[in-house]
Amino acid sequence: MIPIEHYIIFSSMLLVIGLMIILIKRNAIMILAGVELILNAANINLVAFSQNDPSLSGQMMTLFVIVVAVAESAVALAIVYQIYRHQGISNIDELNELKG
Which of 59, 64, 27 lies closest to 44, judged by CA? Predict the structure, then answer.
């Protein structure tokens, strides 16, 4: 069995990578990918802690987080697609107004 420290270290690395992507990249798609990495880090923690304490339902919470993340990604990608279609911009810094 893998010790819980390995799960925590791995999820911490995913969290840091996701935060770095959000802070460094200016492309909207890459920012969404960074948010997904942060959500996956939280999922790994939920499952790891639920293995050590059977009263926690970490796997059910993970499924809930995955469903919310998919819905969030679908809406965000639709918004980014419409912005790119109308203005031709996918860089967040160049976007200064929402109406076309």
Answer: 59
Residue 40 vs residues 52, 57, 76, 83: alpha-carbon distances, Å:
19, 17, 17, 27
Q: Report CA-CA distances (Å) from 61 to 21, 39, 46, 91, 99.
A: 25, 12, 7, 33, 37
pTM given for the model: 0.76
Q: Which two tokens stand for residue 60?
A: 């059910």
- Residue showing tokens 């790119």: 84
Extended beta strands in 52-95, E state = none
Q: So what's the pLDDT on residue 51? A: 80
pLDDT of residue 43: 87
So what's the pLDDT on residue 97? 66
The CA-based angle 13-51-1, given to 5 degrees, is 75
Angle at 75 between CA 71 and CA 95, to 5 degrees: 145
